[in-house]
Design goal:
The protein is α+β, with helices and mostly antiparallel strands. It contains four helices and eight strands. A five-stranded mixed β-sheet has the order 1-7-2-8-5. Strands 4-3-6 form a three-stranded antiparallel β-sheet. A hairpin with a 6-residue loop joins strand 3 and strand 4. The longest helix has 13 residues. It is globular, with a radius of gyration of 14 Å. The two termini are about 25 Å apart.
């Protein structure tokens, strides 16, 4: 996981556009996925994720429980429309470059973080008042 977080930090550093789209090889999005994510990306939004399930069958969106140390997450049930979430996996997400430059992805962070880089990344976005959406 540490190497994947480092890869995202490097992409954020090297990117020349404001928006970065991640589509992992095990996610098959609908044909209009990118168009929908771009339309959902308002000026006050840091990232938008498409809805899909992970290998364990969980929806990839969650709520953060930041008061817990280490951070705890609660997976979301299937929703409808466009909803604010705490975080998401990176399989089908459109994010601002600033997500990676202002809140670098890391595993365990300062020792109180979560073992997964994406949970720490989105928790940092939430702490600074950012917004992550799920397009169900």
């Amino acid at each position: 996981m540490h190497r994947v977080g480092a890869m995202w930090n490097r992409i954020g550093y090297l990117a020349t556009s404001d928006l970065i789209w991640c589509l992992e090889d095990d996610v098959i999005p609908p044909d209009d996925a990118l168009e929908r994510l771009v339309l959902d990306m308002r000026a006050d939004v840091d990232a938008v994720s498409g809805a899909y399930r992970d290998r364990a069958g969980n929806w990839v969106g969650w709520r953060n429980r930041l008061a817990k140390q280490p951070i705890r997450i609660s997976y979301l049930s299937k929703g409808r429309g466009l909803k604010i979430i705490g975080g998401c996996a990176m399989g089908c997400v459109l994010a601002r470059r600033s997500v990676f430059t202002e809140s670098p992805a890391r595993s365990y962070g300062d020792g109180n973080g979560h073992p997964w880089y994406d949970v720490n990344l989105w928790a940092d976005v939430e702490r600074r008042g950012g917004t992550v959406l799920m397009d169900w």
